[in-house]
Amino acid sequence: MLYPQRFSQFTREHADTVAALLCGLLLFLGWFALHLGALGLAFLLLLAAYLIGGYESAREGLTTLFKEKELDVDLLMIVAAIGAASLGLWRREYHLIIDGAILILIFAISGALEGYAMQRTERSIRSLMSLTPDTARVLHQEREEEIPISQLKVGDEIVVKPGELIPTDGIILSGYSTLNQAAITGESLPVEKTVGAEVFAGTLNGYGALQIKVHKPAQSSLIQRVIRLVEQAQTEAPPSQEFIDRFEKGYAKVIVVAGILLAILPPFLWGWDWETTIYRALTFLVVASPCALMAAIMPTLLSGIANGARQGILFKNGAQLEKIGKVRAIAFDKTGTLTTGQVQVFQVISASGYTQADVLKVAASVESYSEHSIGKAIVQVAGDLDWVGAVQVQAVPGQGIMGIAQEQQVIVGNAVFVQQYVTNLPEELREMAQSLEQEGKTLVWVAKNPTPQARRGAEVIGVIAIADEVRAQAAATITRLKKLGIEQIVMLTGDNQETAHSVAKAVGIDRIYAQLLPEDKLDVIRRLQHQYQTVAMVGDGINDAPALAQASVGIAMGISGSDVALETADIVLMADRLEKIAVAMHLGRRSQVIVKQNIVVALGFIMLLLVGNFLGNINLPIGVIGHEGSTVLVTLSGLRLLK
After folding, report:
1. Of 16, 74, 333, 468, which is the active-site residue?
2. Cβ distance 50 to 105 under 8 Å?
3. Is residue 547's pLDDT more than 90?
4. Within 13 Å, how many C-alpha atoms sit on residue 13's CB side?
5. Are 73 and 64 in contact (CB under 8 A)?
6. Could you tell me which of 43, 19, 15 has the C-alpha nearest to residue 29?
7. Residue 541 in contact with residue 562, Cβ under 8 Å?
């Protein structure tokens, strides 16, 4: 019982190959019977070879003819084969029937080979589908219950054990582990994750058990968005492919008209006999067909999309893979793109009589109660120090925070806020603070008052300079882009000129546009397009969405990016790794080179075969081998981008 099932499954999965094998076997038996003089048996076997080998091509060709009112290359092949067989029966030159059968056999073998070649790309893309499990282990009243992923709701708490795949995006409630995110973000090394960290569906849990809270619907997870976008990319033809498709429809009609003329005129113009004339016309139908030209583009672009997906670069369609290779200018948003968007302590300056540790401990005593990112950055740096949390903590939004720690009043905030409680700001600190402000740093003043009852009895003990962390790979990425020949690299930001200048200097960008509103960024992109035509924009926020949409190629940060930016952008960097922009550009340029090579090869083969046909140097089977061989060659050439 098991073997019939396996055989049935094999024939379904490899139907083209089975049809080609049967066609080849029947062709051989028919030729052998013809050689023995058994004409009836030979005709029966060869008819079966025609039907089995040509069924799929005939079905597709007739479907295209009747439904779309268009001629198809498959139909031309069948017409040529039937024409050869008819000519053989008419002239009683039965070797022409063999020629027609060989045509169908080679066409069937070519179809099977092309199918296997394209399956490599399909497997690379569809492997994303298997990255998430079908069920999740949900906690209900401290009991674990396994439910389908589709039934997960926001707020559910799920358990993921060591070695299991994360079923959906969520936030870690408890546990510590390392996660292999290579399949989603392209990061080669496992990433440490603990309480509060976000995890993504499809990533592989390491050695620790995790309890995770679902914070978005399962269908909105990063991996599901990737799958939808990749499926969309497969169905959308880029402009170059659309042009080839339009060309093929007109070209097929020209071939038919030319084939009819070639079947009628040569006996009158050049004195050819009718057998040679019809045979050459049938051969013309085969060798002039643009199969190789049709396969010159999409296999290459789909391979590039699959390659990018493996490296954490999501191309939403093939058109963007084409365009990224033509980019001449690129604009970067600053916050969250060139920088991490996560502030950090840049420098701690202590007043006379105090140490940096003293300043951090006093500041952390009140900032530990703050939800502000600046407060979290200070507490993180002071984590290893011995400090005590304050009481009676009060925060003044946009200004600062204060409380009582070790019977002393602590005041932490901007200069205006702190000056309300101190007699004066030390001159040496003021000068250094002014210098840091000019570099674009945010300053947090720290003061303490031994007598909380006294309104202005506080003493400044130091200043903490806060900066948005520049991404580690930003400078190297800019250098790489310049080496790739990008003519103009600019930075767009809503921040002030000083902050913008400091970040631009750190990463190596010379041209800055600061204090921009979203519509201002849009105007800058338009001006760049007027000058450089193909312009890329890299951003992550809602305020970047108009510029991303306007740019020739919009590139969004996959992890830190807003949903609006991700939906608007054409390319998504799954791991927020800027260096992947250069990889994407290299893929785009390489795809263009391969496409051009394929087109040259396809047109070269067509011209060579046409000349050979008119000179009488090739017969029908040789024409088919040349035609189908060039198609397979071009398809395999496109698959080079998988590496």
Report:
1. 333
2. no
3. no
4. 7
5. no
6. 43
7. yes
Residue 445 has pLDDT above 80, yes or no: yes
Which residues 6+ apart lie within 8 Å of 571 measured at CB? 313, 314, 315, 316, 320, 324, 553, 554, 555, 556, 584
Torsion of CA 212, 213, 219, 221, to 10 degrees: -60
| pTM of structure | 0.63
For residue range 141-199, list pLDDT tens digits in order: 778 888 888 888 888 999 998 888 888 889 999 888 888 775 555 454 577 888 888 88
DSSP assignment of 346-403: EEEEEPTT--HHHHHHHHHHHHTT--SHHHHHHHHHTTTS-----EEEEEETTTEEEE
- Asked about 333 being catalytic, the answer comes back as yes
Tokens standing for residue 344: 């950090």
3-state secondary structure of 479: helix
What is d(CA 58, CA 79) in angstroms, rounded to the nearest whole number? 9
Spatial contact of 166 and 212, defined as CB atoms under 8 Å apart: yes
Give the residue from 609, 625, 605 showing the smallest Cα distance to 107.
Answer: 625
DSSP 245-312: HHHHHHHHHHHHHHHHHHHHSHHHHT---HHHHHHHHHHHHHHT--HHHHTSSHHHHHHHHHHHHHTT
Residue type (1 letter), 15: A
What lies within 8 Å, CB to CB, of 98 at 6+ separation is 27, 30, 31, 34, 46, 88
Q: CA-based diameter of the chain, in Å?
A: 121
For residue 377, give both structure tokens: 């950055």
The model's pLDDT over 556-584, given as tens digits with 9 standing for 90+, comes to 887 665 565 666 778 888 777 889 999 99
Which pair of tokens denotes residue 129?
A: 């589908």
Query: Which stretches of 455-579 are DSSP H helices?
Result: 474-483, 497-507, 518-532, 545-550, 563-568
For 157-180, give one letter per residue: b (16+ CB within 10 A) or e.
Answer: ebbbeeeebbbbbbebeebebebb
